[in-house]
Amino acid sequence: MKRPTLLAALLALSSTTFAADGLPKPDDKGWIQLFNGKDLEGWTPKIRFEKLGEDKRKTFRVEDGAIKVSYDQYDTFLEGPKKERFGHLFYKLPLSHYRLRVEYRFVGEQLQGAPGWAIRNSGLMLHGQDPKTMADDQDFPNSIEVQLLGGLGDGTERTTLNLCTPGTDVMMNGKLLKQHCINSSSKTYHGEQWVSVEVVVRGSESFKHIDSDGKVVLEYEAPQLNDGTLLEGGTISLQSEGHPCEFRKVEIQRLK
Q1: Where are the beta strands (DSSP E) in 94-193?
Q2: Residue 202 lies in a domain
Q3: 29: left (phi over 0), alpha (psi -120 to 50) or beta
Q4: What is each CA distance from 174 to 171, 185, 221, 240, in whole angstroms?
Q5: Which candidate in 25, 52, 58, 165 could, as Cys together with 15 as Cys, close a disulfide (CB 3.0–4.6 Å)?
Q6: Residue at 92 is within a domain
């Protein structure tokens, strides 16, 4: 019997470790599929004004190999006057040091009643709070939001991979930022094309947003709650803000 190579041994050990901590096994390049392409196994919805795990209108579903954020069972995005039904789809495990890769696209028209700023708008909520701790009427989890935007088709620039900070702050260039949203330097993606993006997350140290060309378009440090508590890790969730969108790949590489 041949002696296994060091690489093979490490991969075998890695697979055992990931299986033990509840993550799927990585492929030969270390990528772990958080979305299996078939169903929402491992994911739990939290829709505003609904209990954790409920999704009465099937906002999040899997069709044609993609997670679809859909509003065909909604009459309006509003629960009542100025009470938008924001939603999030949470992965089952918190994570800390990883490289996240997502493919997404915006489709169709925005749902009536959704805020104007949310047109062709979604997000990746990282280092997020446990959804069990969210209030029924809470709109967004405390988190670092990697904001995903699509072009409006009118010729104006509209970057994606921006940063928004619900309940959080970050440091950039040695300064604590209190600004809620900060634009990246990405190009604009119009239409219904699929867009591939990556985020390199290193615990409480740093975040890097990387566009489909491999260019770092935004980076910052020291993710923290508004009270100054550094965030070492947290949940990953996909956002529902009133415009239909799809995610066909959600995968990570674990980093030391």
Answers
A1: 97-106, 121-128, 144-149, 162-164, 168-172, 175-177, 181-182
A2: yes
A3: alpha
A4: 6, 19, 9, 33
A5: 25
A6: yes
- Report which DSSP code applies to 238: E
The residue type of 151 is G
Beta carbons of 170 and 223 less than 8 angstroms apart: yes
Instruction: Pull the structure tokens for residue 47.
Output: 């829709």
Residue 17 placed within a domain: no
The CATH number of the domain holding residue 201 is: 2.60.120.560
Instruction: Round to whole Å and give the CA distance between 202 and 85.
Output: 31
What pLDDT is attached to residue 21?
A: 77
- How many folded domains does the chain comprise? 1
Amino acid at 166: P
User: DSSP assignment of 128-155, as one string?
Assistant: EPPGGGS-TT--S-SSEEEEEE---SSS
pLDDT at 12: 37
Q: Return the SS3 of 11.
A: helix
Does residue 125 sit within a domain?
yes
Contact between 95 and 236 under an 8 Å Cβ cutoff? The reply is: yes
Residue 208 sits in which domain range? Answer: 35-254
Question: What radius of gyration do the chain's Cα atoms show?
Answer: 18
Q: List 235's β-bridge partners, or say none.
A: 128
Tell me the average confidence (pLDDT) per consecutive run of 10 residues in the chain, 256 residues long. Answer: 37 38 93 98 98 98 98 95 93 98 98 97 98 96 98 94 98 94 97 98 98 98 98 98 98 95
**pTM tops 0.70:** yes
- The first and second tokens of residue 63, run together, are 């069709």
